[in-house]
Specification:
- The chain is α+β, with helices and mostly antiparallel strands.
- Strand 35 and strand 36 (about 760-770) form a beta hairpin.
- Helix 7 (about 255-265) packs antiparallel against helix 10 (about 375-390).
- The model has no long low-confidence stretch (mean pLDDT about 90).
- It is built from 21 helices and 37 strands.
- Helix content is about 25%, strand content about 30%.
Length: about 800
């Protein structure tokens, strides 16, 4: 919210410095983000009178002037301006001056003649005609009235004040206006703010002869006020109005548009003016847009609307998007002769939704979103008509057209004074509370230990109900002074929140799986007898010991699940058949095994993959990366697994002689049973075993100081030789000072050149030493030792 002190001083007696005012506002809950000069960036630019003008001795287009800038000696200025004559008063930037664009003035030599400054035009000073007549011209600016030589241009142009940029909290919509901030500033200075009186203007004739208003959706528009003005005189607004608009960053357009903008800033209520000749039958209808309806707004952009948006329309078309922007088809132009001024109340949440869908917001929309008030809507309209009459901008017709469905009755709340004092933590008496609230025009009457508070219409943030004590306490506290409230220690019991190791481990599993691109699923804890049958479990398998429910929802949920497999497969089938494009899922859930009197609960992790190039090895990679993240080391993979996996693409996961999980490709028969039309891969691990085998805290070691040497070898081995055995053998090789790292299989070959019953396996690995760079002899020796070890253990031969 921009608050020009010059504008503020029209309503409040500013008897403090700017710094003092900023501090007082801060203690009232209004943070001043910035203090800006009315002529920002300008320094050492003063009024001067031209004493003499002579031609430049060596340049026909230059003139040498001597000016009186209020100093003891005249100042020499070299210029090319032909407007500067003897006796003229102009703004001059002296050496060391700074202009609006940041340019600094220094002494320069122009064709042998020194110049100690520069004459300025409006552009150099950041001014336009709204600030001073003639400032928009691209030439030296001449003063039209006499000024003392040496006077700063800020004083000469009456732009020597400042503008406060105030950061408002969302609940104080009433302060997004000059009048609203004047109330607060007056209270901060210990003054009583008197609301400015708006002169009632009675028009001639009957407004209903020119226009009528109807509201179809009273929930989204609770009040619509309008006035008709004819015989318009569209012309530039007066200088005082233009300067006020410029001080808050608004561009003057014409008298009618400037009036609506001035009222917006002054009273905080958005207004709009329609060309009445462009409104069919003069009939304003506030309705929901029709699906796909389009409006060309004032920025000349066509916008497509949806049925949940609100529009201002006539019987034939929409003429504006309610609360956002008017339509180009009803814009005020120089040809406009009759206008309808609109001041309405639109629902903030609907305006917010509209701006988000249109991806376009305006200053008016922002104010509607924060909240406007129905009483203020009529005040704003009356102020606009007062200005129209004051400027002689047109003939006002009849009275107000007011369609009101809002509750505008005076609100009162009863609050507990003792409770308010307890909330603040200071022994403030009810009498003192009444006195403090009076500073911001909130009338309160003491009734024993209670206060009967009359809430002003503009204070929409003060609730009626259980929040009233807290809202009034907030007002009393900031008026009393936060700095006067004595600090106290917190009261009450404080507990340290934490979760168990098991829950923390579950969270780490979920975080790791999400990082690996898997979606978490939550499945029901039930399954059907047919789910167990489809898995073809062998006799003696614990997963056959399912707990039967006494009162199940149905036969398909009559057992507590003993494995996550059915849940995972059903989820894959659902996503495949609905073509979601997702193919990687996981679940951390409980299974139950019937062990007699009480079932045993076990926690499992299930991982399921399909589509997107997923295969047995990508699933195995997921498991390996997960175990690495969880710091579960020393895991081995061995052939094996349930009959629900396809032979040749299944494995068991071992740790210290214990099976902690299994993984593999789902058997085609089982995939058909669940209607999965793609290759599916599933892994199931015991979470309790993972937690039990988890290593301690992560250990860190310095980065290697010496380079690594990478080598590849391909060896011929028997067909039944397992890759994992070879990798373990190579990784555990004792090579003395040489370390072997990153052993990995990258190719298996069977075919021409490889005898039947044999296969070629290619491995990559890295060699390094911790204390020196490896020599060629050390590298060759290490590779030979690795090959000899493979030959001794597996009969491997180098290809």
């Amino acid at each position: 919210m921009k608050l020009p002190l010059r504008w503020l001083s029209e309503y409040v007696n500013l008897d403090v410095t700017v710094d003092e005012l900023v501090e007082k506002l801060m203690w009232r809950g209004f943070e001043v983000a910035d203090v800006t000069d009315e002529m920002p960036g300008i320094s050492n630019v003063v009024v001067c009178t031209v004493v003499s003008v002579e031609p430049h001795p060596d340049a026909k287009k230059l003139r040498v002037c001597r000016v009186d800038a209020g100093a003891e000696e005249l100042v020499q200025i070299v210029t090319n301006s032909t407007r500067v004559d003897v006796g003229a008063q102009v703004p001059v930037a002296l050496c060391g001056a700074t202009l609006a664009d940041g340019f600094k003035i220094e002494r320069v030599n122009l064709r042998g003649v020194d110049s100690y400054g520069m004459f300025c035009g409006g552009k150099e000073l950041g001014l336009c005609d709204a600030d001073y007549e003639g400032a928009s011209a691209d030439e030296v600016l001449l003063f039209h009235e006499p000024h003392p030589n040496g006077q700063s241009v800020q004083e000469a142009f009456e732009l020597d004040s400042v503008v406060l940029d105030i950061e408002l909290t969302p609940n104080r919509a009433d302060c997004q206006s000059i009048i609203g901030m004047c109330r607060e500033v007056a209270a901060a200075l210990g003054q009583t703010f008197v609301e400015p009186a708006i002169r009632e203007v009675t028009g001639v004739g009957n407004a209903c002869d020119y226009a009528r208003v109807s509201i179809e959706n009273t929930e989204l528009c609770s009040r619509y006020c309008a006035r008709v003005v004819t015989d318009l005189k569209i012309e530039p607004s007066p200088k005082w109005m233009q300067k006020k608009l410029r001080s808050v960053g608004m561009r003057p357009i014409n008298n009618i548009v400037d009036i609506t903008n001035l009222v917006l800033v002054e009273y905080g209520h958005p207004m709009h003016a329609f060309d009445l000749a462009c409104v069919a039958e003069g009939n304003i209808i506030v309705r929901n847009a029709r699906e796909g309806e389009t409006v060309v707004t004032l920025d000349s952009k066509e916008r497509s609307l949806s049925s949940d948006m609100l529009v201002i329309a006539d019987p034939e078309k929409a003429v504006g998007i309610a609360g956002v922007m008017g339509g180009e088809n009803s814009e005020i132009t120089e040809q406009t002769r009759a206008t309808l001024f609109e001041s309405a109340v639109f629902k903030g949440s609907n305006i917010r939704a509209t701006t988000k869908k249109l991806r376009h917001t305006t200053d008016s929309a922002a104010r509607f979103i924060k909240g406007v008030e129905p009483v203020n809507a009529l005040l704003a309209l009356n102020r606009a008509i007062e200005l129209v009459d004051e400027l002689g901008a047109g003939r006002i017709v009849g009275g107000v057209i007011d369609v009101c469905h809002a509750n505008i009755e005076q609100r009162t709340v009863t609050v507990d004074a003792e409770h308010i004092a307890a909330i603040i933590g200071e022994p403030i008496s009810p009498e003192e509370m009444v006195e403090l609230l009076a500073h911001i025009n909130i009338d309160a009457q003491q009734d024993g230990g209670s206060l009967k508070v009359t809430v002003p219409y503009y204070r929409t943030d003060i609730e009626v109900g259980i929040e009233a004590d807290w809202d009034i306490a907030e007002e009393v506290a900031r008026l009393y002074g936060y700095y006067r409230i004595r600090p106290t220690l917190m009261r009450g019991d404080v507990f340290e929140g934490r979760i168990s190791e098991e829950f923390a481990f579950d969270d780490s599993i979920k975080d790791a799986m999400v990082t690996l691109g898997a979606y978490e699923i939550y499945g029901y804890n039930f399954m059907s007898p047919s789910d167990i049958s489809a898995l073809r479990l062998t006799e003696g398998d614990d997963r056959l010991k399912a707990v039967k429910l006494v009162n199940p929802f149905g036969a398909d949920q009559s057992l507590l699940r003993t494995t996550l497999m059915p849940t995972l497969l059903k989820n894959l089938a659902l996503n495949y058949n609905r073509k979601t494009g997702h193919g990687r899922f996981f679940e951390v859930g409980n299974v139950h095994i019937d062990e007699g009197e009480l079932p045993q609960e076990r926690k499992k992790l299930g991982i399921a993959c399909m589509l997107g190039g997923e295969d047995f090895f990508t699933l195995k990679g997921l498991v390996e990366q997960l175990l690495c993240t969880l710091r579960v080391d020393g895991v081995k993979y061995a052939a094996g697994g349930g009959e629900y996996f396809q032979p040749g693409q299944r494995a068991q996961i071992w740790h210290d002689g214990e099976v902690i999980g299994e993984l593999g490709k789902i058997h085609p028969d089982l995939a058909d049973y669940y209607a999965i039309g793609a290759d599916a891969y599933v892994a199931e691990l015991d979470v309790d075993c993972l937690l039990r085998h988890r290593s301690g805290y992560a250990k860190y070691k310095p980065l290697p100081r010496f380079p690594v040497v990478r080598r590849d070898i391909a060896v011929l081995v028997n067909e039944d030789t397992a890759c994992g055995d070879i990798v373990d053998c190579m990784a555990s090789a004792d090579l003395g000072a040489v370390q072997i790292e990153d052993v990995a299989l990258f190719d298996i070959y069977r075919g021409i050149g490889v005898a039947p019953g044999k296969k070629s396996m290619a491995f990559s690995f890295a060699l390094r030493a911790e204390d020196h760079t490896l020599s060629d002899e050390e590298i060759h020796s290490a590779v030979k030792q690795v090959l000899d070890m493979l030959a001794d253990r597996f009969g491997a031969k180098l290809r």
